[in-house]
Amino acid sequence: MERYKVIREIGDGTCGNVFRAYDIETNEIVAVKKMKRKFYHWEECISLREVKALQKLNHPNIVMLKGVTMENHELFFIFEHMECNLYDVIRERRAPFSEEEIRKFMVQILQGLVYMHNNGYFHRDLKPENLLVTNNIVKIADFGLAREVCSSPPYTDYVSTRWYRAPEVLLQASAYTPAIDMWAVGAILAELFTLSPLFPGETETDQLYKICSVLGSPDHSVWPEGMNLPRSNRLQFFQIPPRNLWELIPNASLEAIDLIQQLCSWDPKRRPTAEQSLHHPFFNVGKWVPRPLHDASYPRTNESRASPRLELNLWGFGTEPDDLDLTLSLKPSSVTDLSKHAPKHTEEEILPHLGFENPPVQPGLWPLMSSSHRPMAMGDVPAMPSWQQAYMIDSQSTLPAVGGFSGSPFGLSPLQPNLLERNPSLAPIRHVNFF
Ligand SMILES: Nc1ncnc2c1ncn2[C@@H]1O[C@H](COP(=O)(O)OP(=O)(O)OP(=O)(O)O)[C@@H](O)[C@H]1O
């Protein structure tokens, strides 16, 4: 490791410590991830998921693995260096992001995911800490849990970060799909608006409770398969109506709310793919595309022409290729020359069609949590022993307290300068450069 001079530690994850370092051969700043576990065979190293996935994935929105080195039974990954992660960006943010800023982040995350999913991988641990940022360029990192889409279930080793964990994983489905990444994208999108996590569960059970408190408890009509999963009986305790997302995320546009709602669908089959998400009207705000004028459902009568109405139409989009270019539009109620009929309308005539109605509003929710309280990346704090009693009787009046632990498990450890240098290369070194 003489080639790399450590500047400082920049990350302490579950699997490894990450250091900013200087590559004396290339004069570049790199990120060196030192894996916490020991390795005894080179084959062990190169068969790691993170190595296998990153060797194959080469995309501007996926962090580049430059090489892998083993020394003294310690394994080091050499990555391109990024300034910070999205969690830092959110934490340091004092004012809300503009929707345009959020759109720019989201487009990049989704483009990285489209590439990854199309190449047969899903990430399984998407969260703001794993989205690295330099000059507003976002790259997906930490492929420690990445899995090949075609690998066979059951995926029992899955332990992604709780707040971004999809319900099918929480309920112990034995097989799941790239839709688990899309759930995380929905939660991250909401967090970009509020600067607070959408589902900050303290335990797995509390995580389900928090999801029910926002989306409402699921039933057979919204997620038939979900009702038969091993842990679905937990949901029966939560008879909770959905919250109105507009209230929870007041600074989000209707398009953003609709996208969050779709991404955070209980049923993974109802979540749009990364590719479909990129075609959602949220990414077309400001680009008004007229709906085709020949609409059979609107009679071409003089009467209707005389009183045109406008509808703000957020059309649902599905899996059909034709659906992909649907977008926000002004829909005239009759076939008419728009230029001759300039609209004279009040706000009430602009009707949102979002596919969800105003649900009864739940009186209280957990306080918006500081994003400095992060959940453990792996494993969970044991569930509250009395949760059944707490939730069964009156779930709305017995909301569990939140934020009961201090200090972030993601906080950086004290600096360990020159740690790599302190490990002299006595053992044989194996090194491979990918690029
Ligand atoms: N290429 C990089 N450039 C800059 N910082 C990085 C880089 N890679 C990782 N980091 C920092 O180190 C932190 C931990 O990295 P990473 O997620 O890869 O480790 P991990 O042990 O797999 O973590 P986790 O606990 O999420 O599984 C990241 O959140 C990020 O802040």
Summarize the structure.
The protein has 435 residues and is of the alpha+beta class.
Q: In the CATH scheme, what's the topology name of the largest domain?
A: Transferase(Phosphotransferase), domain 1
The biggest beta sheet is recorded as: 6 strands, antiparallel
Instruction: List low-pLDDT spans.
Output: 292-371, 376-429
Q: What's the β-strand tally?
A: 13
List of distinct ligands in this structure = adenosine-5'-triphosphate
How would you state the average pLDDT, rounded?
Answer: 72
User: Under the CATH scheme, which class of the largest domain?
Assistant: Mainly Alpha
Number of helices: 12
Please trace the helix and strand order, writing H or E for each element. Answer: EEEHHEEEHHEEEEHHHHHHHEEHE
User: How many domains, in number, for the residues?
Assistant: 3
Give the spatial strand order of the biggest sheet: 1-2-3-5-4-13
Strand content: 5-15%
What features would you describe in this structure?
- Residues 4-283 form the Protein kinase domain.
- Keywords: ATP-binding, Kinase, Nucleotide-binding, Phosphoprotein, Serine/threonine-protein kinase, Transferase.
- The chain has helices at residues 42-46, 49-56, 86-92, 99-118, 167-170, 179-194, 204-215, 245-248, 254-263, 274-278, 302-306, 387-393; strands spanning 4-12, 16-23, 28-35, 65-71, 74-80, 84-85, 121-122, 131-134, 137-140, 147-148, 310-313, 329-332, 430-433.
- Helices cover 24% and strands 15% of the residues.
- The chain has three domains: 4-80, 2-Layer Sandwich (Phosphorylase Kinase, domain 1); 84-283, Transferase(Phosphotransferase), domain 1; 307-340 and 360-374 and 388-399 and 410-435, no CATH class.
- The radius of gyration is 24 Å and the shape is globular.
- A six-stranded antiparallel sheet has the order 1-2-3-5-4-13. It has a three-stranded antiparallel sheet with strand order 6-8-9.
- The longest helix has 20 residues, at 99-118.
- α4 (99-118) packs antiparallel against α6 and α6 (179-194) packs antiparallel against α9 (254-263).
- By secondary structure, it is α+β, with helices and mostly antiparallel strands.
- It starts with a strand and ends with a strand.
- Residues 10-11, 13-16, 18, 31, 33, 63, 79-82, 85, 129-130, 132, 141-142, 144, 377 line the site of adenosine-5'-triphosphate.
